[in-house]
Amino acid sequence: MPKSALYHCEVVHKRLYPKRHSFKYTTAMLLLDLDDLERTSAQHRFFSYNQWNIFSFFDRDHGPSDGTPLRLWAENLMREKGINCCSGEGTLLLLTLPRMYGYVFNPLSIYYYFDSKEKLTAVIYQVTNTFGGRHCYVIPIDHQQKSGTLYTHSAEKQLFVSPFISMSATYDFYIRTPSKNIQLAIHEFENAKHVLTATLSGKEESLNNETIIAAAIRYPLLTFKVIGAIHWNALLLWLKRVPLFHYPSSEN
Known about the structure:
Layout: E1 5-15, E2 21-33, H1 37-43, E3 47-49, E4 55-57, H2 70-80, E5 91-96, E6 99-100, E7 108-114, E8 120-128, E9 134-140, E10 146-147, E11 150-156, E12 169-176, E13 181-190, E14 193-205, H3 209-218, H4 222-239
Parallel strand pairs: 3-4
Antiparallel strand pairs: 1-2, 1-14, 2-5, 4-6, 5-7, 7-8, 8-9, 10-11, 11-12, 12-13, 13-14
């Protein structure tokens, strides 16, 4: 069973329609056991739980954003979808960007729920947009749809993310359980037309004081460049005259 670790990642976005456009960037992400955050914080001088540090993790950056314990929140979400999960049983891992020097913006965080027999039972994709909105796609894992170590599933778009893609869209997810490597691909279809592919790939490294400092040096603007890349590439799409869609006024 994978435990807390640091991953060196590459994120690639490829816009396919109506204009071609692509970008990529490297970053560091953390895989965290949500039942082990206090001990992880205590063991690492440069990582803190709900406190400022070079790398830190705050409950309020995730889930309902009100500080609710994430384990309880995630279990309630899964039960609403009919997923069998007993309180406190199994393992809940979260792949996410850390806060760095007190700032973070997480376009996508991924929760992996393993039952007491270490079987992947559910995946939660927590998507956050730049307008302050957030939605969680809760996916029961059907092992009949597994191909080797690859899981595939789909979801209808529920959150306005990019002003260059309408809400008439669906996602196809391709994901592997975290191990020495992490892999995720998302194909977005707008009115059945393949418009975007986004991929995330990463290699594991132990989470310790030395690797945190090395990551901070290697990615000095880690969390800042994510939001910067989003806005810079939005400008480039606008200059390419890709049609704009307005943010739905009914969304929170």
